[in-house]
Amino acid sequence: MDKKYGVYICTGCGIGEALDVKALCDVPDEEGIPVKTHPCFCGKEGVELLKKEAADGTNTMVIAACSRRVNFDIFKFDGCIVDRVNLREGVVWSHPRAEFPALTEEEKEDEDNFDRVQMMGEDYIRMGMARVEKVDLPEAYKLDEFTRKILVIGGGMTGLTAAIDAAKTGYDVTIVEKESYLGGYAAKVRRQIPMSEPYDGLLPPTIQSKIDEMEKYPGITVRTNTVVARIAGQPGDFTVTLKKPGEKIEFDVPFPLPDEMKVDENGKELDVDQLREKYLEYNEGRKDILSLDPDGEKFGAVILAAGWRPYRPEEGEFANLGFGSTPDVVTNAQFEEMAAKGPLVRPSDGNAAKSVVFIQSPGGDAGDADFDYAGAVTSLVALKQAKYVREDYEDGKAYIFYQHMRTPGLTEGFYKNIQQDPGIFMTKGEVIGVSKNGNDLVIEVQNTLLGEDVLVKADMVVLGTGMVPATADDPVINLAYRQGPGFRDIGLFNGYSDSNFICFPYETQRTGVYAAGAVRRSMTMEESVEDAAGAALKAIQCIESSNRGVAVHPRSGDMTFPDFFFQRCTQCKRCTEECPFGALDDDEKGTPKPNPTRCRRCGTCMGACPERIIGFADYNIDSIGSMVKSVQVPSEDDYTEPPMRILGLVCENDAYPALDIAGLKGLSYSADVRLIPVRCLGSVNVIWIKDALSQGMDGVFLLGCKHGDDYQCHFVKGSELAEIRMKKIGDALASLALEEERVAQFEVAIDEYDKLPKMINDFVDIIEGLGPNPFKGF
């Protein structure tokens, strides 16, 4: 597009009192760009002025006012590129000072009157002008084929609820269930934990009523005794191949082997089976990435509600508790199966099990830890199963020994009801061992709330083992993606599918696939029903977003998608391997094959590319690089003691909002810092850091989301990838004869705004200790 530029500087909210507005206006004036000021651009008069400018042909605007995180809907004009320069929170509010003095031109030129805050504001306007020159208006990517049909994997309580909720909104749904019946584990239980007020008693199973409700919707198709063989394509246009459990399906080989791999070491041609093995080896086990099944069914989104399986203790794992050596020591899942058949009896001899001990933590080396995959559900299940004992036998006794008793929300009422039962005894305690004494089991408990050790005789012992997500054993979704058929293990979630459990529940690492129920975490049926509704809404949102050509969370509504300059691609595969969402496949040469509706627009591929051939319409290597280069770096030619210039590349998800909050609170940091928001630290290309240092900036820091045990990077791996790249930049700094300490990375959560000033100022102190960049002035 032919760009007509305009710069608009707001003088409200203290900006006009704190900064020399005339000097700010001189910045675009020097470039021949018209500039206008107004005391309130977000007010009615200000908006009308901007609309008139747009109507008169100005299609590229730099609005210097408040943070781009506020009034974003007000400053949107059709057909216009708009850049928001943050003078309010980013300059004035975060760097409070006295009203700008009325200086003469001579006084302004005097280095003693040099104003760092004023320079900060002027630099940000230059940066905004540099950016709009290098970006374009995005155009939505539209699929050639599109479907709104939803696939639900799993026909249990979660899957049925998700299907019903989606059908209520008018979407066609197919339920795929690997068993020959619907209901999942809910069809096997004797009684249910309470799901509604007053939350004080057990319920009969409700799964049949859910199945009856599902049958009322003609838009729901049920496929039992069926599993997913493969899902190819992208949101809005998934191609799904279904099969019977155990059925073998071979997909076409998408591309041939190189000639040199068609023979063995002696030059002899390989037979068909050998070729297949070579092919799998060559393609890292990926035999079906690019080919599509012409007979596959089309779906727009997938809800993964595959459920869970009981934890299976390994041989000898709980030997101290008698498991494996004593038939009367069982898991809670085995106990539920027994209870569903009728009055409780001991497995060893069939006699009545009137005294049962429930162990909620394994003791021994595990200390106060619960069983693996356990949680609030296992606490509630113990309460429920203790009630079975009392229901079956008037003189029955149940004992619950726990380290953590979790009954969240209104289920506290159920806990209190169980407490009132005189036949149920509960205490915190560590079970040291379970031994056999004739027909009885003897349970030894230490460190109880009673302050003394306890010995209990019982007919049975029940271990509160947890709920293992189905995805821990099997990909289930079987994606035909470059990165494999399941979700990549990022080492934190024990097989659970949810990749961002705080900010974006239901989200998985694969766009268009939404997890619900026990594949996300251990859940009660009540929680699973609520979870199913959330996943159904997310699937619908994804379908409609894909149809409009815009991104889903967290950059909801973003119309951009990565563009590749393939002529310079070296087929290094870094973009395909590092993409957190499997948005890129590749061909036989390793050239990336984009799937735009899989993309979440994080820019990790852009940060990974050593050739810098990947970019977005409004966010690319050149746009950020130009902002970096537009910052004026004072040198000794201009000042006796030039101030430092430090660049901060700041993640827009947690770090940038935290900086805005710091500004709102009047918390100040060094005015020598220049901040550039980035989509994710994963999108940071090291060339930006090299450019900053080579032009004389004294230091560079990256500020982004935390990563680790409670990983919450909005784009899964961005902060971690950036940290890896920063470690590798040391060689580049050494080649420039610069200290490694000039580049650093910091982590912050959105609510840690109060820590930011010290974090930034401490880095500035380090840089000042190192002294000026030797490239300054060149």
TrEMBL record:
InterPro entries the record matches: 4Fe4S_Fe-S-bd, 4Fe4S_Fe_S_CS, HdrA-like, MvhD/FlpD
Under Pfam families, the record lists:
Fer4_9 (PF13187), FlpD (PF02662), NAD_binding_8 (PF13450)
Co-factor(s): FAD
What does the UniProt keyword field contain?
Answer: FAD, Flavoprotein, Iron, Iron-sulfur, Metal-binding, Oxidoreductase
Q: Which PROSITE patterns match?
A: 4FE4S_FER_1, 4FE4S_FER_2
Gene3D superfamilies on file: 3.30.70.20, NAD(P)-binding Rossmann-like Domain (3.40.50.720)
Residue intervals of the 4Fe-4S ferredoxin-type domain: 560-589, 590-619
Q: Where are the transmembrane segments?
A: none
Q: Name one GO molecular function term.
A: metal ion binding
Q: Which family does it belong to?
A: Belongs to the HdrA family.
The protein's name is Heterodisulfide reductase subunit A
